[in-house]
Amino acid sequence: MAEGVAPLPSRLLPRVVEGRQGQYAGAVSRLLAFAVDVGASWLLFTLGLAVLSVATQLVTGRRFSLSAWQLVDLGVLVVWEFVYFSYQWSLAGKTIGMALFGIQVVEADGSPVRSRSAFLRTLFFPISIVTFGLGFIGILVGRDRRALHDRLAHTAVVYAWDARAARLRWLARQDSAPPAGPIP
């Protein structure tokens, strides 16, 4: 700073928000996380069926495929998707995609999600879809960005990472770097 110039009082400095932890997650991050989860769950489902098919062929000597049994295949897929989402939400409050994009399901009051709420959220999720997507309008226009299934299950989706803490950890790593030069 130039000599003789007084610094601005802190109340006049622009406030920079670096951390979003605990704030309601937006539509884009939720949609991207869901897309990753659809891909991950489909990949795991397909791998599971392939392993089942190979194991059945090794044991019985006959080929096995659910594609000939379309209703059974659909039923197994629905159960798999329910388990995929419900289990992960009840275990950690986030799925693979949500962890990748730094978002997490919590109770509406901000406390960690309970298994019951995770189960209800998974159960009510199709309602947001079968209403021609109108169940998701709350994510776009609601102040708390809660979809219909979030309201019914008393949950919310928030950012789970703190950009400021990550930046401080990165800076700490840079300060503790060993000096350049030959190792004695």
Structure commentary:
Strands 1-2 form a two-stranded antiparallel ribbon. It has a domain at 21-39 and 74-163. It is mainly α and 184 residues long. The chain contains seven helices and two strands, in the order αααβαααβα. Residues 12-18 have low confidence and may be disordered. It starts with 26 loop residues before the first helix and ends in a 9-residue tail after the last helix. Helix content is 55%, strand content 5%. The chain has helices spanning 27-60, 70-92, 96-100, 115-130, 137-141, 148-153, 163-175; strands spanning 103-107, 155-159. Helix 2 packs across helix 4 (115-130).
Record the SSE blueprint.
Blueprint: H1 27-60, H2 70-92, H3 96-100, E1 103-107, H4 115-130, H5 137-141, H6 148-153, E2 155-159, H7 163-175
Helix pairs in contact: 2-4
Keywords, separated by commas or semicolons:
two-stranded antiparallel ribbon; single chain; 184 residues; mainly alpha; 5% strand; globular
